[in-house]
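FORM 12-B: Structure-to-Sequence Request
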């Protein structure tokens, strides 16, 4: 997940006397670059994940510092470092409260520290970590695409992950993601990564096959649920123009099984998109777990269309609703009254329709075996 605020603290706490004074819940924010700022103009062009450093020369009042923090949060910055002791004598309590409320890291560095040296040092570390992350992402993709060829990915991932441990894939998308240009998609990627709190080096985030992919290693079910739900809440609040859809695959053991979690996450995210819901867990999909595991799309299409073909053709010719009527009838286990209430139709009309449907299908629908092909067809139509 890149070079994080936590990483920077480990490097800089002693060397540069860096202290985090607010927004501690943002400790896992990854940093794309460090920028020296004395006005808010540059912030307007931020992509996300930038860490800003200021001496306070251009922000000499509490109001000016507050405006800088708000702009940083608005543009998905990773955090703000204040060079205290000269222009900034005291950090306003209002600023610290705001950063705590928004989980936005606020850090201080003494005036005596040469900020240029610190920025250069951290930027080099960010660059090196980005290179390592790219290697990791490529290895993860190889694990998904060619799981049997473990020599291609296991050794690369071994220094960074417990390759014998548990893995789980989370797929994230929004409508139109695959048609975005590279710059727009990169900006969106940075924003989502900012919302994935509590994930640092036990996770990897990358773009693959028209999805943003999060792979987590040895993360408990409860922690993952908190991470994913928290990400969605922050995205709804701060990124309303891009509603997210998320699918979570099953937990698997050993990196060689990663592809299984990926394929299941793909089924879950497709279900999320189909039903315009924010989040689906594959393990909660019931019968759909089986259907989304079928790779033969032609088979699924045949099972979806062939049983209902007589009703589809009747509805098209007569502008009827026999397909919907049968679905309701099966869902309510043959209860005429329940169908009538659901469809706001007189029960005699429902009786007439069901009689015609049985004739068109050549099926009395009286046993579970007789009803099963049609029930499966309706399940597949909802995929």
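FORM 12-B RESPONSE
SEQUENCE OUT:
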């Amino acid at each position: 997940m890149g070079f994080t605020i936590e990483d920077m603290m480990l490097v800089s706490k002693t060397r540069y006397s860096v202290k985090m004074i607010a927004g501690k819940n943002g400790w896992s924010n990854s940093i794309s670059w460090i920028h020296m700022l004395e006005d808010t103009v540059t912030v307007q062009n931020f992509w996300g994940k930038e860490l800003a450093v200021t001496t306070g020369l251009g922000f000499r009042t509490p109001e000016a510092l507050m405006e800088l923090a708000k702009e940083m949060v608005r543009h998905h910055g990773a955090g703000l470092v204040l060079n205290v002791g000269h222009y900034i004598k005291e950090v306003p309590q209002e600023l610290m409260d705001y950063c705590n409320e928004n989980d936005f890291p606020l850090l201080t560095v003494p005036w005596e520290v040469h900020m240029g040296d610190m920025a250069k040092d951290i930027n080099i570390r960010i660059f090196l970590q980005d290179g390592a992350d790219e290697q990791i992402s490529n290895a993860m993709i190889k694990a998904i695409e060619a799981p049997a060829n473990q020599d291609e990915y296991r050794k690369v991932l071994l220094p960074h992950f417990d390759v014998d441990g548990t893995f789980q894939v989370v797929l994230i998308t929004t409508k139109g993601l695959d048609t975005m240009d590279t710059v727009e998609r990169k900006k969106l990627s940075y924003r989502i990564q900012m919302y994935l709190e509590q994930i640092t080096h036990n996770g990897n985030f990358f773009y693959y096959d028209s999805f943003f992919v999060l792979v987590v290693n040895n993360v408990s079910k409860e922690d993952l649920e908190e991470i994913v739900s928290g990400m969605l809440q922050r995205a709804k609040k701060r990124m309303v123009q891009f509603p997210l859809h998320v699918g979570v695959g099953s937990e698997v053991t050993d990196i060689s099984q990663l592809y299984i979690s990926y394929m299941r996450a793909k089924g879950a995210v497709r279900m999320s998109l189909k039903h315009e819901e924010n989040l689906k867990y594959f393990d909660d999909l019931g019968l759909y777990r089986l259907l989304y595991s079928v790779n033969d799309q032609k088979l699924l299409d045949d099972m979806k269309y062939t049983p209902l073909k007589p009703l589809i053709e009747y509805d098209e010719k007569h502008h009827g609703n026999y397909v919907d009527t049968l679905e309701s009838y099966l869902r309510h286990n043959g209860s005429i009254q329940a169908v009538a209430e659901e469809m706001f139709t007189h029960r005699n009309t429902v009786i007439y329709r069901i009689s015609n449907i049985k004739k068109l299908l050549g099926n009395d629908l009286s046993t579970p075996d007789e009803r099963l092909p049609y029930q499966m067809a309706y399940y597949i139509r909802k995929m």
